[in-house]
Design goal:
Elements: H1 15-33, H2 37-65, H3 70-92, H4 98-131
Helix pairs in contact: 1-2, 1-4, 2-3, 3-4
The structure holds fe (ii) ion.
Length: 134
C-alpha cells in the first residue's frame, strides 16, 4: 500500500512546524500500515493526539505574533479535527477505509500546509526580520 511520502517541497520554512508536519506524516503512515483493529485504533489515537498538539502549537504561535488570519486558520484546524473525529468513529465501528485517510491527508492536510501554514511561516519570518537588530 503506497505510503505518504514527505517532500521538501512541503516545508514551510519554520523548522519546528516542518518537524511536526513530518511527524504527522509518520503517524499517518503508521495508521495506514496498521492491520489489526487494536493497532488501527492505537495509531488513530496517536495521530489524533499529535494533530491536537501540532494545532495548539500553531495557534499559540499565531496569538503570540498577532497573526492576522488567526480566526480563519483556527477554523480550518477545527474542520480537520472534525474530519479526524469522523474517521475515529468509523474505526470504532469497524468500517473505516484507508481512502478516507488519504482524502484527509491530500485534500486537507497538504492543501492546508501548502497554503495556510506557508502563509503563517512567511509571517513569522517577516516578523523576526523586522524585529532583528540592524
Ligand atoms: Fe495550520
Amino acid at each position: 500500500m503506497p505510503q505518504f511520502t514527505w517532500d521538501t517541497a512541503y516545508e514551510v520554512g519554520d523548522s519546528e512546524i516542518d518537524e511536526q508536519h513530518r511527524r504527522l506524516f509518520d503517524l499517518a503512515n503508521e495508521l495506514l500500515g496498521a492491520d489489526t483493529k487494536a493497532s488501527v485504533t492505537a495509531a488513530a489515537i496517536q495521530l489524533y493526539q499529535y494533530v491536537r498538539v501540532h494545532f495548539k502549537h500553531e495557534e499559540d504561535l499565531m496569538r503570540r505574533i498577532g497573526f492576522p488570519d488567526y480566526r480563519q486558520h483556527v477554523q480550518m484546524h477545527s474542520q480537520m479535527v472534525d474530519r479526524l473525529n469522523a474517521l475515529s468513529a468509523d474505526i470504532a465501528d469497524g468500517c473505516w477505509r484507508s481512502q478516507d485517510l488519504r482524502a484527509f491527508m491530500n485534500e486537507w492536510l497538504l492543501i492546508h500546509i501548502a497554503e495556510q501554514d506557508t502563509r503563517l511561516a512567511d509571517y513569522v519570518a517577516a516578523a523576526a526580520a523586522s524585529s532583528a537588530p540592524h
